[in-house]
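call fold(seq) -> tokens
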Amino acid sequence: MWGCELKKDGSKGGFLHYGYDGRDFISFDKETLRWVAAQPQAEKVKEKWEDHPGWTQKKKIYLEKTCIEWLQRYWFYRKKALQRMEPPVGNLTRKVVDDSLEVLICQAFGFYPKEIQATWTRDGEIWETKTSSRNVSPTSDGTYYVRLCIEIDPKERDRFRCRLEHKGLQGPLVLAFKKETALREECGKQVLGTLEK
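ret:
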């Protein structure tokens, strides 16, 4: 087990511990360039390692230089990842079940970070009744996807909207189904909706 730290005052800390059979075995004191045996069985290892000062010096250099460089690199990547912002792309489709029932399907994809607020509204009010499939899932490109479905009476379709709120958006993205701009798919009963602003 090893690790390092770069303190605010510029000083560097680090440790290197070896274990055996679930117990501490030997550890490295980088300030004195000495090995500390935690078990009597480690004494022979300690003697052997201390007979090779070049090898011990490499351990110190690793903890104070290489490890710190990697730590700073990962810190930069972490900051970059935390600042990453990709807004969702929304899509609204429907599936006709019969003359009195259809399913509206709202999909948001390509967004990062993962946190998103996806809700159905009816006449502007949040509508939780018969809403299903709201799990946010990762995609292969590192972004996220969510699917939100609701069963409705086709006669009330114009009253429903899918509302998406995400840090990557300047304001809520509201999707509505519009018959006049819909395009039917050849192999199914789904129809693509348009964006309502």
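Residues 180-197 have pLDDT under 50 and may be disordered.
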